[in-house]
Write a structure and sequence with these properties.
The structure holds two protein chains of two kinds. Helix content of chain A is about 35%, strand content about 20%. Chain A is of the alpha/beta class. Chain B is α/β, with parallel strands linked by helices. Chain B contains seven helices and eight strands. Chain B has helices at about 40-50, 60-65, 70-80, 100-115, 150-160, 175-235, 240-250, and strands at about 5-10, 30-35, 55-60, 90-95, 120-125, 130-135, 135-140, 165-170. Chain B has an eight-stranded mixed beta sheet. In chain B, helix 5 runs parallel beside helix 6 (about 175-235). The longest helix of chain B is centred in the last third of the chain and has 60 residues, at about 175-235. Classes of the chains: A alpha/beta, B alpha/beta.
Amino acid sequence: MKPSVVVLYHIFFEDTVDHIAEQLACMAFFKPTYLFNICSDTPNQFEIKKELLKNFPNSIITISSNQGKDIGGKMLLLATCIQMGLQPGWIVFLHDKKSLQALNTKTWKRELFKIIDCGQTAVIDAIISNPSSYGIIASKNYVTKELRTDGKFTGNNGQLLERLLCDYQINCKTFDYVAGTMFWARADAMLNFFKKFDPLKIRQQLEYGNVLDNFSGTYTHSWERLLCWIVLSDGLTIKSI
Amino acid sequence: MATSSVFYSIPCSAINESVNWFNETKNSANIVIDCVEPDMGAIIAFVRSIEFNFIVSLNENVLLKLHEDLITIFYLLSTLSGNFRKNKNRIPVFSTTGDYNLASLDRLAEFFLQQGEAPIQFLPIDPNGIDQIVDNILFCNIETDEIVDDSRFENYVNIEPRQVVFVNYNSNKTNITAQFFFTITDLRNEKAWADEKSNLWKKRNDLYYSFIALSKEIGEKQYYDIINWYQQEYEVLPLWYKRFGHVIKVLKGKRTLKSLFRKN
């Protein structure tokens, strides 16, 4: 039996809705339940909501503050999932990434969205339909390692990461993560964690507004890593495609 | 047509699969949280059926027993509501005793602030009052089967409320004056939202300008990082060493022999 799939999609940009139906067309193969979160800073939020309901009539749509950017949006949708009692096999994390401050913005986005590409449907279906040790499926060019030297993280988010790993009792052998936070994740690993640690309480910690970690560490970017490590700490691995 | 300003109250305890609510005149709900363990599955199925056209309010009974899970549910329902933000984050609180349990309301308000939301404003309402105007919202009580009186709504047109909440309205009857009044209220509400939306577009413009500036700053930093690395790793090397490097490039096919003799 095919596992059920839930898609959690955070929307910030006003033009995302113009191509979202096309973007998600191939996901229809998996018959997912869609949960969308629209940022309340987005001026045409109600028009977006209306258009989403037209294209995805059974979807759940929230509108919330810009707390924690896409990570905050995904935390809210995880909380919604839990409250609705959903028990999917896999969760797909997506958002309308642009990263306008980065030099490689178009490539980054295109590569990350490979995970919902029509060309990858059969590959992904084979992975999720068969027992395996894979807990995350992501685009290979963006699976990266958080650097450690002498047992300590060396990046801008290092100190925060050390503290959060301890506070949330996350123990994993490797510190690979998906840069850009778009991936398929085994739902049981994710939801078991978030039933223990309330995602809305975590969302409170996140920074408000469009934070960047180019110059210093942030909770938002730290949780980008932790979302992957939650799954890896269950003994699961990342499958790059 | 879906309204953005007229809501018919329904307690969440009454929402179940057998509720068949939607019709042309009554298609927007004020969901009153009156139980400490609301059935989220039933509520979500209901709000889906009315295309998320609802607001949320509180009954005093739940304030006495407010717990963390209920606060979470209340917040999530607010984010699902199509009108929470259009309503400027105002939440009616129904109390017959006048005791609004301020400590519980403060807990709720604090939770919303911690989620990055604008401050919420609680509106105290007596559910047994005939008609009440609180902060530009008209709260009406209309008994079952009572025909909506023309003159009653003529009075309200002059008050210009931004929203109408029917506290009790089990009748399907309406009249043309009421419909006209609802349409005017909708237009007023939509105009206020259009002004708010204009502010959001201005902020969005400013955000794009800041992205451009940040992109330039990051680009400059990356450029100087590369230049400094180049200076540190290559320019400091002696001339004879660099010239030897050029010969190796010719041997590897990365450069032409002719280029060795060009002045630049």
